[in-house]
C-alpha cells in the first residue's frame, strides 16, 4: 500500500498533501535557440512562488526558454474558474532606465486539465500590450517582501481567466516563447521567455 501511494505521488503531485497554489512539478522542457540560463537549477527554479519582488528590475531566479522554447508544469492544485482571473504567470520584464519602457519577451500560455489536451489563450506578440501574452507584467510579489503572489490585484505578473478559453478547471500549464514575433529576445543563454513562477489565484 505504501509503495502504491508513493508511486501515485510521483506520477501526480496533486495527489498528495494539501493543495499548493504554485507549480509543483516540471513535466517537460524543450529548449529553444539561445536557452540555457537557469537550466542547472531545474526543477526548483520554476517551482514555488516567484522571486520577483521589484517594481523595476526583473529577477534572475528564472529559466530562459530560448526562442520557441516550451515548458510544461503541473500545478500543486487545480486552478478553478471563478470571478475574474484564475491563474498568474510571472516572467521577469524590467523597466528600461533610460526610456521608462518595459522590456518584455512574450510567451503564449496554454492550460489543460489532463496534461494531454491543451487550449491556448489568444496571444498576439506583434501587437502592443495588452495582447493576451504573458511576459509584460512587472513582478511585484517576492519570496521575502510579504506581497501575496496569489492576489492578482497586488502580485504583478500576467493574469489569465479560464473562462476566456472555456475551461472550468486546469492542472497543467504550458508556456511557449513567442519573442521572435515581437522582435524582442535577449542574447544567449538568456534568450526567450524567462519563467519565474506560476500561481493559482486565491479565492
Q: Would you give an account of this structure?
A:
Helices cover about 5% and strands about 25% of the residues. With about 200 residues, it is mainly beta. The protein has one domain: Sandwich (Jelly Rolls), CATH 2.60.120. The strands form four sheets. The protein has a five-stranded antiparallel beta sheet with strand order 1-3-10-7-8, with no helix packed on it. It is built from two helices and twelve strands; from the N terminus they run H-E-E-E-E-E-E-E-E-E-E-H-E-E. The N and C termini lie far apart (about 35 Å).
Write the layout of secondary structure elements.
Blueprint: H1 2-11, E1 23-30, E2 63-64, E3 70-80, E4 87-90, E5 94-95, E6 102-103, E7 107-112, E8 119-120, E9 158-160, E10 169-177, H2 179-182, E11 194-195, E12 197-200
Antiparallel strand pairs: 1-3, 2-11, 3-10, 4-9, 4-12, 5-6, 7-8, 7-10
Radius of gyration: 16 Å
Coarse morphology: globular
- Unreliable runs: 1-8
Span of the ends, CA to CA: 34 Å
User: Which sequence of strands runs across the widest sheet?
Assistant: 1-3-10-7-8
The CATH architecture can be given as: Sandwich
Give the % helix: under 10%
**Total DSSP E strands:** 12
- Helix and strand content put the structural class at mainly beta
Instruction: Please report the number of helical segments.
Output: 2
Q: What amount of the residues lies in strands?
A: 25-35%
Taken in chain order, the helices and strands follow as HEEEEEEEEEEHEE
**Largest sheet entry:** 5 strands, antiparallel
According to CATH, the fold-level topology is: Jelly Rolls
Overall mean pLDDT: 90
Amino acid at each position: 500500500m505504501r509503495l502504491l501511494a508513493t508511486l501515485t505521488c510521483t506520477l501526480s503531485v496533486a495527489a498528495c498533501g494539501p493543495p499548493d497554489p504554485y507549480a509543483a512539478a516540471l513535466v517537460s522542457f524543450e529548449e529553444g535557440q539561445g536557452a540555457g540560463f537557469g537550466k542547472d537549477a531545474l526543477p526548483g527554479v520554476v517551482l514555488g512562488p516567484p522571486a520577483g519582488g521589484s517594481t523595476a528590475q526583473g529577477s534572475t531566479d528564472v529559466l530562459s526558454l530560448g526562442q520557441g522554447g516550451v515548458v510544461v508544469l503541473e500545478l500543486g492544485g487545480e486552478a478553478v474558474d471563478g470571478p475574474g482571473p484564475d491563474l498568474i504567470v510571472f516572467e521577469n520584464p524590467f523597466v528600461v532606465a533610460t526610456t521608462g519602457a518595459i522590456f518584455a519577451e512574450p510567451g503564449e500560455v496554454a492550460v489543460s486539465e489532463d496534461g494531454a489536451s491543451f487550449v491556448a489563450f489568444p496571444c498576439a506578440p506583434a501587437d502592443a500590450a495588452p495582447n493576451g501574452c504573458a511576459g509584460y507584467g512587472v513582478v511585484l510579489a517576492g519570496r521575502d517582501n510579504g506581497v501575496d503572489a496569489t492576489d492578482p490585484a497586488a502580485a504583478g505578473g500576467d493574469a489569465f481567466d479560464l473562462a476566456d478559453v472555456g475551461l472550468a478547471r486546469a492542472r497543467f500549464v504550458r508556456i511557449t516563447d513567442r519573442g521572435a514575433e515581437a522582435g524582442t529576445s535577449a542574447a544567449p543563454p538568456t534568450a526567450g521567455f524567462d519563467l519565474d513562477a506560476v500561481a493559482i489565484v486565491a479565492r
